[in-house]
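Subject: Integral membrane protein structure
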Amino acid sequence: METVRLVLLFAHLLGWAALFGGLLAQAREPYKRVNAAMRDGVGTAFVTGLLMVGVLEAGDEPVNHAKIAVKLVIGLVLLVLVMANVRKERIPQGLWAGLMLLTALNVAVAVFWSPAHT
């Protein structure tokens, strides 16, 4: 079970990195848009996060449901915002900045809210 959790964690981190990288790649561009890295990254991160919770619930360690709920809400907001704007030619600068902040916040919650793997 630990191997499955680690594989899911790896894919989860890659998903967040793809979303953040897709956003960061546009930092100097005058017009922002939802690109494939953002779309695929947020989808990967969200689905692997859900699967990881399932694996954690099946294990013997206690699961921090408050942390999971916070990450779920942030992840769901990101997923909805990205998918709602995927076909638009451009997105507002404020939305782009909000996506950056929410992505960083979700990673910060994962890193700084103890214990490490729940």
